[in-house]
Amino acid sequence: MSHQLTLDQIRRAPKVLLHDHLDGGLRPATVVELADAAGYTRLPTRDPAELGAWFEAAADSGSLERYLETFSHTVGVMQTREALTRVAAECAEDLAADGVVYAEVRFAPEQHLEAGLLLEEVIEAVLEGFRVGQERAAAHGRSIRVGTLLTAMRHAARSQEIAELAVRYRDVGVVGFDIAGAEAGHPPTRHLDAFEYLRRENAHFTIHAGEAFGLPSIWEALQWCGADRLGHGVRIVDDIEVSDGKARLGRLAAYVRDKRVPLEMCPSSNIQTGAAASIEEHPIGLLRDLRFRVTVNTDNRLQSGTTLSAEFAKLAEAFGYGWDDLEWFSVNAMKSAFLPFDERLALINGQIKPGFARLKWATE
User: Fold this and answer.
1) Closest C-alpha to 125, from 176, 83, 157
2) Which residues are annotated as a binding site for Zn(2+)?
3) How confident is the model at residue 185 (pLDDT cuts 50, 70, 90)?
4) Are 138 and 113 a contacting pair, CB within 8 Å?
5) 155 compared with 200, residue with greater pLDDT
6) Contact 162, 136 (CB under 8 A)
7) Which interval of the chain is the signal sequence (predicted)?
8) Which CATH number fits domain 2-26+81-363: 1.20.1740.10, 3.20.20.70, 3.20.20.140, 3.40.50.720?
9) Euclidean distance between CA atoms 311 and 292, whole angstroms
10) Could you tell me which residues are annotated as the binding site?
11) Strands 263-265 and 229-232, how do they pair?
12) DSSP code of residue 142
């Protein structure tokens, strides 16, 4: 029935997003306006439509340098309290307009200090933005809740400090911790003190692993660091052997499936970074068939020119997914969110399942 699912129908589905970068989701027009306000002169163009196209082309170029350059521009215009609050508010509004009912949006506070802000001021500005954005969405009849993940950069040395801030702000909107950045040469075990601290504090964290680097990255994230979820995790397929239509799981892949470790998969982004060859060949198809705890995410909406609805639409077309599949992904994501159990259950039973039931009834 997937051929009947249109992008507009999918947009009305109550969706859950776990892996979305704040500095990868700006509106092109906002980038231009913030650049003007900050005197930032390095943008490749000041025309919003052209700028949006440039971000996508640079991210699609196959050049990691060009891909990373795109973030120098977005982070470059996110250095004041006003800019951070605006970007966060618009993020919440844009996700709500796409039918997202719960999102965890991550950002690295240490990347927003160039204009003199303190780490605490960066965090508070973003939290304020999400509050404003949620209120604006509600005023338009759209319910969304946004939790924040504080990210530390794996090539830097501030992970302990960021982890302590994640714990400090966990009762006012910060729901977890993350590390990001180049995997190769920067193993997560370098930040073991931060992860051990978070575990002692009963805090939640995810680790970017198994995207650019393979199984050792996933193994370290889980068995040394104790990650609750894996950011991307696509390379877990390297531990799965398919022969004559039957899959044989290696020890690590079996552990990930048995333990229901959530995989934060970002199909369009994975193709841009070379972690997958195409949507049709993306490991998500096999992993869904094998019933791993797979979730669907956007990663960087600006660079990938995408939305969560668009990601679902691509998967529906590639794999023949229907409403039941999309609901399965959405419930997986809500089960895996860094919210208290009763709050996750309330969203599943109060919004996600009834929302999909209405869509199924309306399109049958």
Assistant:
1) 83
2) 19, 21, 208, 299
3) low
4) no
5) 200
6) no
7) none
8) 3.20.20.140
9) 19
10) 19, 21, 23, 181, 208, 299
11) parallel
12) -
Cβ(234)–Cβ(265) under 8 Å?
yes
- Please tell me the distance from the alpha carbon of residue 287 to that of residue 294, in angstroms, as a whole number: 7
Q: Say which of 110, 183, 211, 264 is annotated catalytic.
A: 211
Average pLDDT, the chain: 94
3-state helix, strand, coil in the chain (%, to 5): 55, 15, 30
CA distances from 336 to 11, 332, 345 (A): 21, 6, 11
Where does CATH 3.20.20.140 sit in the chain? Answer: 2-26+81-363
Residue 211 known to be catalytic:
yes
| % of residues, the chain, pLDDT over 70 | 97
Rg (CA), the chain: 19
Going by C-alpha positions, the residue among 138, 136, 113, 137 that lies closest to residue 125 is: 113
Residues of the chain with pLDDT > 90, as a percent, come to 87
276 alpha carbon, distance to own chain's centre: 17
Please give the annotated binding residues for substrate, written as ranges: 21, 23, 181
Nearest-angstrom CA–CA distance, 50 and 126: 27
Quick one: how far is CA 145 from the chain centroid?
Answer: 15
Q: What is the pLDDT of residues 292-338, one digit of tens each?
A: 999 999 999 999 999 999 999 999 999 999 999 999 999 999 999 99
Q: Are strands 174-180 and 100-107 parallel, antiparallel or unpaired?
A: unpaired
pTM across the whole model:
0.96
Q: What is the mean pLDDT of residues 275-281?
A: 91
Query: What 8-state DSSP symbol labels residue 299?
Result: B
Q: What is the pLDDT of residues 206-251, one digit of tens each?
A: 999 977 678 999 999 999 999 999 999 999 999 999 999 899 999 9
Predicted local confidence at residue 2, as pLDDT: 40
Q: What is the C-alpha separation between 195 and 246, in angstroms, rounded?
A: 37
Round to whole Å and give the CA distance between 4 and 99: 19
Residue 162 burial (CB count, 10 A): 23
Rounded to the nearest 10 degrees, what angle do helices 323-336 and 353-363 cross at?
170
